Amino acid sequence: MSDSTAYNFPFTVLDPQHQETGAPAFANGLVWAVHAVPGQELRTLGSAEVEALLAPGRPLENEGWYWLHFDTVHSSARGYVAHLPDLPEDVCAMLAETEYGIALEAFEDLIWGALPAFDDALSEEDREICAWRFAMRPDLLITTRRNPIPVLGAAYRSLRPDQIPRTPAGIIDRALREFTGTVRRQLGHLDDELDRAEDVLLLIEHRSDLGHLGSIVGKVRRRATELRRVVTPIDRVLKDEDLDLPDWAEDELRDRAERQVHAALDDLIALQDRARSLQDELGSNQAEETNRRLYIVSVGTTLMLPATFVTGFFGMNTGGMFLAQGSLGTVEAGIVCFVFMSVTFLFMKVARLL
Hints:
Largest sheet: 7 strands, mixed
Organism: Gluconobacter kondonii
Structural class: alpha+beta
Radius of gyration: 35 Å
Oligomer: single chain
Coiled coil: 254-288
Order of helices and strands: EEHEHHEEEEHHHHH
Family: Belongs to the CorA metal ion transporter (MIT) (TC 1.A.35) family.
Shape: rod-shaped
Number of helices: 8
Helix content: 40-55%
Subcellular location: Cell membrane
Number of strands: 7
Keywords: Cell inner membrane, Cell membrane, Coiled coil, Ion transport, Membrane, Transmembrane, Transmembrane helix, Transport, Zinc
Strand order of the largest sheet: 2-1-3-7-6-5-4
């Protein structure tokens, strides 16, 4: 499911006071703005509260935390996000970026970065990988995305009173766990594909039917490579010794998220090793089948070589050719061809060429 709302205004958050009139009160790409307090229902923020929340010098919130989620597909939304007043300039520029990239940085109580996610394609096999960005403090989380990101929608819908995390880092942890869960589900499907290919490879009787197995193994290896290119950078940034996360985010990002990502990476490496071994075995069987066919052709060519010589000899248009007279000349020439082929066959048997 997408993280988009059901509003008719694609780049608008509606102030609760304007819900009946349908008039937009805040049109800067904001998809949702909520205040989350553990044990309480989510509270939607009005436009005045959002503006006050983003004002410089705002005091730290003592109860709960806020989440602002922006859609940056529109240039006006990117322009607004790029100049948020309460964040450093480089962090705002990162939030407004639309290119794919993975990063995680921290300075004092501020954490920002870009993480991967799957888009909202109906089939998991067809989902493309895109990026979403975030910046957070202990009481504020700001996320941006260019494409609908199901993991953010799932994290938003999970914010029931008894499941609201203590800090915004819990949302990042949930999004990463949802992403790695999707990766591992895809790995399970790819593993099933390899199971079917392996069963066919073990039970097949006619080696000429191996062609379609190559496409199955190739598809598995391509998708596994794509996923590994995404998961490996996440594992690398989470293990970066130079990354000094604040204490309030250490447990969620450094411990739980890192374990989930590393487990998914281990499964990926195991799947790639299995696919590579299966492809090597498939290549070996195909090479064996090719050699068997070439052997048959070579044997047939060798057996026919004496007969070819005999027919070529009798085919010369010269005078005095023996067997040219009489009604049994063709039969006698055929017998000569058969004798030479038999001698060749016996020679190949004695020489253990057959």
